[in-house]
Amino acid sequence: MTNGGSSGDDRSGAVVELRVHGVSGTGPDALLGSSAGESVRVAGDARAGFYRLPAAAPAGSGPAWRRVVEAYSWGGLTSGPASRAVWLLFLPFILIDLAHWMLPPPTRHRRFASIAVGLLRLLALSFTLTLLLAGAAAVLDSAVWQCGSTDRCHDSFGPAFFFAGWERGPQLAFGALPLVAVIAVLWLLGRENLRYDPDRTPPDPAVLRDEVPLAAAEFWFADDSIRRLRACHVTAWAAGLAAIVLAAPTRYATGGRWVGLGLLSLNALILAVVIAATAWNRTTGRGGASADRSTRPLSALRWLSLAVLAGSLVWTAVAAVDYPAPPTHLPGLRGAIYVVLAVQVGLLAGLLGAIALAKRTVPAAADPVGHRATLRGYTAWYVALIGWLVGGAFSVGLGLLAAELLGDVVVSTARAEALLAMPGEAAPIIVAPPYAWAAVAIVGLLLVAAVAAVVLRQLGRTRARQAIAGVLDDYPGARADDPRIARIARARASASLADLLTVTVAGLALATVAGMAAMAWWYFSDQGGFEALPGRASTLTAASVLITAGMVGALGALVVAAYRDRGLRREVAVLWDVVTFWPRANHPLTPPCYGARTVPELRARLGELAADPQRRVVLSAHSQGSVIAAAALLQHRPNPERIGLLSFGSPLRRLYTGNFPAYFGPAALSALRDRQPARWINLWAYTDPIGGWVLDPRPGAVDRRLLDARTLADVPDGICGHSGFWTRPEYADAIGELQSDLLPAGTPLDPGPTVRPTETDL
């Protein structure tokens, strides 16, 4: 049910407490503390809407102003559709897109920041090619080229390999069709969901320190650059797939080889144009100056690449080719994998240098303690590195999983020939030797991560002992041996460890890179070689292969389970609530951005409510909701004196200022404070692992610390944590204080019935 925006508060003055929840998709009834189905939608739709309880009876001769509670429930944007579960498979794409928003802002010049923006897009394009190569290794190489040509292998799967008796050329052409279908996924899922206005372009993607891009209403608008970027990725996939399929028939052709060489050259030229377009900020960079005239040429190039792909598949199917006898692996595929890997290493090195050069104009202590960029401003590089490692692990796992399902994993042709000569043995499937090494490295990383977890746990115990003195200061007269004091101290210590997770994950990423470098050194050494480890430790290698393949299988099972189970999908959506706040910038195949709807929608609702001189608004925002609220208030222009802000459990400084310094850095927080003078209260507690103080931890006009538990009698259920703010009396006091600040002095206010959320895990 939907009705007008006033919903019963238009007969007298009203102070609207507008609640915005955090992650996990809290429903409107829970947010308003009402029975299921009791709330009434007054704006928006079922996915993201504004709700109130049914209007009460007229107040008669009561106070001229009354209090109204309204809820903005936006969880349907992230945890609703079952198709959202599929996005788990595209985590590397999500991370490389997130890295764009984490770039540090230079002080004076955009040059090196612009280079970093372009390099990130090139890395994102290489991630698409990595996915293509992973699919080719699993489908074209393991299933079609190897298993399809070996009687012992394809006979085990019966009708599933109905094409086993075909010639190699038709097998390759047919086997490429599933990878051709992925083009439709890239095309459809990459559609932009932002509003498009040709006359309003988002701000420049390279942000300077004194700029506040979120203050521009155009920030959430789309431009044609993302559509052009999508065309580039579709084109690159088509050209890359065609080149992979053409490699074998061109190499072994007995006639008409010039056709294959011509098609390969044409695909290489198309790929080169796509790479150049992806690197050019004006063509594919979100925001800033735009080369709109390149939209049609890139769209035409996409259709051309699809036509060339079709021609490549047809020629592969009909060409006269003398293919080698099995066992062999698909020619050209390993070389493509090594080339892409080398290019990615070079791009990561270039990105690191570009960030360093962009940062050189920024004083080391330019920001106050607590507001400085995480990892010294290199967070974007670490996130890109992690995305690369995750993508590589997924590719290795997918290749090994396919090989394990089809037969026995081997790393050399000689070993495959030996197994084929042994009756009763499973069919051998040859994988690239680095796959086996990577599996060992992944298992080694898991062990290092387990050690890191033990170290963090021990550190938590140490911090808990150190926190006891501070807890005793909050509860005068309590004894240090009181188990309730220890309980609060442990909660504080556990919450403080969240600040070390970024450093820990970055350290694990560097450890992985160091392990890869050691393996590369072993490969080029006289005593080493990628086949040395399987020969010396076959049990370790086999176990590592099974574990790595099992991880990919488990990820697939999680996707299926999340697709079928809304509750599990809601838990998965907690991650998306954080990473999909931002629009697409580097990769078109990422989850739709919900910030593009929630921020303008909340801003419009605030404008509608505050436009009436008989209304005041207290915006009450928890956790991620405070990020949405801050972005909306940065853009809100009319009647700011009629709006107050209460944030609690807010990650604005703790997660966003350090990790997204160009968008939520000190300049943005200062602008927000200036727009909300004396009408902003932020509640925080030491036991909150996500939120914290925003401007200054010392007692002041904005930040106010809550005791971890109101009294020791409330321990353990009353420890604040991240979700205990709603039921604390300090919350009601802050609402009342903001209401008093917004109303003329001495104005009577009917507080109305107490409305508390029935679900506090928001």
TrEMBL record:
Keyword Membrane on entry: yes
Spans through the membrane: 85-103, 115-140, 172-190, 234-252, 258-280, 301-323, 335-358, 379-403, 435-456, 497-523, 543-563
Listed InterPro entries: AB_hydrolase_fold
Chain intervals for the UniProt region annotation (Disordered): 742-762
Listed name of the protein: Integral membrane protein
Keyword Thylakoid: no
Residue stretches in coiled coil: none
Keywords from the named record: Membrane, Transmembrane, Transmembrane helix
Highest taxon of the lineage: Bacteria
